[in-house]
Amino acid sequence: MNIKCAFEKHAVPVKEYSQSGELIALRHALKNYLGRDLGLAAVIRAVVHGNFTSVGYNRQFRGITGHLFLAGDLRKYRPVPDIRMPLDSFLNACNW
Known about the structure:
three-stranded antiparallel beta sheet
């Protein structure tokens, strides 16, 4: 209930939404950027702490997945692969 309340804390307008662009529904962000593990958890944590809010809502998707976010802001919560490099090295195309 705390998560649902955090998402609904700020009154956001109901907006039209057809596909990702400038705005992206949390439902599509789960598939395209976040995944259901670390990325989703980071977004939920940010919303609960009040550091991140949605800009709209679309009733096309149920629950919190219908909240719309600015795509650029949401991408910041994309999980980064765990790349460990020695401190005295550098990364270039040959390392991949």
